[in-house]
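Continued from yesterday's entry.
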Amino acid sequence: MESVKIKQLSVSVDNSEIISDLSLDINRGDVIALLGPNGHGKSTLFHAILGNELYKVNSGDILFDGESILDKKTDERSRMGIFLAFQNPPEIPGVLTMDFLKSSIDAHSEKPLSIYNFYKEVTSAYKRVSLDENFINRNLNDAFSGGEKKRNEILQMLLLKPQLALLDEIDSGLDVDSIKIIADIINEMREKGTTFIVISHYQKLLDLIKPNRSAILVNGRIALEGDYSIAKRISQEGYGFLKKEYGVNIEKKESKQVLLGSCAVKNIYE
């Protein structure tokens, strides 16, 4: 993957427009902090990129290396190298973690991985995320703690080696040691070419991964883009400066989205 371009994307959920004329360019090797108040469309954007059928694209396009992916199903997009770590990973009783991981790896490979190499890779990944490898014999996320679920998401990312990783509050509910583990993995994978978009409300993770870009999503649009200094400023001041300095009103409504004019989209790269 060299680039992903989101062009004037509008997305609805249950006939309510959440994303409104959103555009964002993503380049190989970027680590983008996707910021914004709760309920303004960050998770919706991630689900739209991965092709969740509950999220209807009304207009616009998503281009993966110049090719539209709107007609591709979620599994096809995943095989192209797009990965989503869920904000709230679901518990799936009856699905053995081992079977899930083996099927996932094989679906992303030209030929099935041998059992020997599978256990070798999985054992290494479990150590890397600091989970007991016996978790592989349990049902997927069933009776896992919140932190265990989040680290299990990162374990999947390690095994699938995506080109574009979408991390939705992967650090929420984690202790300092777990956040450090996840940050180290992100930094290692970015050096090997993985591109990241990270939603986080915790400055600790962002300080450890130091995104090269920040984008603030408000009322379904990218209201402000820039470098990491934006994320630092939000951690210190909140979002109040957006209206004062850039004329951006934060007006969340339960039904119809309040749209920002095109003049609200700013770039403040130095």
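--- second protein ---
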Amino acid sequence: MCALGRGGHKKTRDDDPERRCIATGEVQPKAGLIRFVVGPDDMVVPDLLEKLPGRGIWVAADRAALELAVKKRLFARGAKRAVQMPDDLVDRIEAGLLRRVVDGISLARKAGRAVAGFEKVKGWLATGEATVLMQASDGSERGKTKLRPPSETGAFIGCLTSSELGLAFGREHVIHGALAAGGLTTRVVEDAAKLSGVRKNDGGSAPVKGTKTT
């Protein structure tokens, strides 16, 4: 299980399978990479679920790395054949990750594993029920400093706007949220870490020590 620091950076498991990024050349745990495959029409397709058939091509979940892979046409090298790419490939990846994060939080809420609102989040943090603190990137910095990530995990998600976080909770805007351990929390944290790297503007700040959230 990975965890997020305040900057949205991911802490990964030591036993996580590793893959090589075609843009940076670095080998790293695949939890921090995005998988791509080439479809029958030779079109590069992001495989966010990592379930599509075909040879996997991996790129770090970092906007600069993704843009470099597109600019230098590194997917063709990884696929070892000519490929086609949509002009808005990186934006599509961001949109897909955002949907996964919002949907994951929404499902966690329906399962009773997510709450929103300053007082509820504060209560969960006090009792230790919260393993992940979520705060809107466009929320008041002064207000956000009144809550700290769980001391045992340091897990924090700060890459969503108040309207995006609100969408997950069925409200217009949400500034503070929290996730309990188990359920979809692992998936939400990992997807949020990737989204944080892909987004142009990330709402995180200084990293906080993080450990496992399950």
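The radius of gyration is 17 Å. The chain is about 35% helix and 20% strand. Will compare against the first tomorrow.
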